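Bench log, entry 3. Co-assembly request; chain sequences pasted below exactly as received.
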Amino acid sequence: MARLSISHLKKSYGDFIAVDDVDIAIADGEFLVLLGPSGCGKTTTLRMIAGFIPPTAGSITIGERDVTALPPWKRHCGLVFQSYALFPHMTVAQNVAFGLEMHKVPQAERGPRVAEALRLVRLTGFDDRYPRQLSGGQQQRVALARALAMQPQVLLLDEPLSNLDAKLRLEVRVEIRELQRKLGLTTIMVTHDQEEALTMADRLVVMEKGQVRQVGTQRELYEKPADRFVAGFIGRSAFLDGEVTAPGRFRTAGGLDMVCAAAAKPGPATLALRPERIAVGGEADGLPNRFTAKVEHASYLGALLDIQVALDEHDRMLLQIPNRPGLTEPQPDESITIGWAEDAGLVYPRGA
Amino acid sequence: MSAGSPRLGRYVLNGAAALSLGFILLPLIFVTWLSFFRQEIPSFPPEGYSLQWFAAAANNKSFIDGFVLSLQVGIVATLIGLVLGVPASLALARHRIPLGPGVSTLLLLPLVMPGIVLGTSTYVFQIEVELATEIPVMGSLGGLIAAHTLVVIPWVVRLVTASLAGFDRTIEEAAQNLGAGPITTFWRVTLPSIRPGIVAAALFGFVTSFGNLEMSLFLVGPGRTTLPIAILQYLEWKIDPTVAAASLIQIVLIGVAMIVTDRYVKLSRVV
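Structure output for the full assembly:
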């Protein structure tokens, strides 16, 4: 296994910039997830690492070797495709042995290595089956075994779970993560599924419109989102547009003044609040920012209640309050008190 | 309308299908029947049955020579057609080629062109080539094979293009990711995946070449006749059931080839 570093990586198609100046360094044995909405450039980045798309600029280094100009078959990185891409005319064992054969592993060594790879993914005894005789989850594991058998320097996973049903997805998530830890595999996974990303990654890279918005651990991304996009994309946030009037002071578009430690430079800004930082009803007593809000809409989501409230004509926000026994959802037009502490909100300048 | 009309529709459809099938099978049935007649001049009802015409066909030197020539020409033309047609199909299916649709139509054209037109034009072309280059093309074996290759190519292009349409290219990427270069990827992954199309193309190409009469009539040289021409020439003088027997042998051979192929490749899936 090896380190991987991507520096100033760029891909443009004519005027369209798919990946824009991406810089990422992945440590040996680290599980990094590229996360973002579709079209954010995460798959393009992964395909550039695998060598299927030539970058417009920048470089990719695996271990000590600059692989930017190398064709895919010389990069030695195992890729698990979204569609699995098993060879339909070969058996499971032949599929797994293919990479070994290509890397000129002696015949005598191949058998044990195929068996070992299949054992790792718990498919011992499936050697002679053809891909069409396997379920989706089994095919997925063959694809993983095939990539692992050739002992790649990095493992690349392209939305590997998106074709599995929900229950299986949870199981395979854990399996892949355990295998990755056990083997110390340097891994990059691409996904648009936030929960999947949060549960599997050591670190995450949030991408949007071809650019890296933030790199960090789950906690860093949730507690200190670098910009408004990350604040809305990782977990939920309630947003209030307005302006910073003075350091520590924020005024909403509707003219409500509030104290906010994060407010620094005066100018147009957005205040972002995590739902668990907003107190409702009696819990809001004594907090510096305390408002009466009118309920516009409430939905019951099981563990949570989603409540859309209006502070005034201009200022609307979405609250999430945890469900508990005896709690009834507020009715439209009901007034509730909400409040938050001075250090609860994060402020992002607007128009910057 | 009453509830009976969908059923009526189905009767009409089945009837039409049976009628069409009859049109195709009836001549085959009659040829088969005729080849066992005892009398020399075919007339109904038969005077008796005999296997003598099979012996006559098997001992007819021009039939045997024709069969061997047709077999040679068919095999060589099919191989050349594959070597030219498979890469052409790959290029057409995968790359943006200038005038791509035009090229594709051009390659399929011999399939819809009347045999006589194809024969005449190839004949004139070969004469012109011979006049221009002084290489004896006309009436040569090479000239005949070249012309037959022309009717094999459309089958290859059509069937291979069809199997490429359903081909998942990520398996080629998977092969490259596992360390296979482009050539290895082609032989180990691409080719096996389109094999059904190639096998079917070879079969249909060969059968088309083997049975070709119109074009071959223009192009065969002295002392060089294909089986269909040998049969035609025989029919000019005699109408005894030898021809029926020879035809039946051909039908059986082609039928066996189809059945054997179908065991390995489901023809109904490719064609």
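Residues 24 and 83 of chain B are 33 Å apart (CA to CA). The interface with chain A takes residues 168, 170-171, 173-181, 184, 188-189, 192-193, 195 of chain B (CB under 8 Å).
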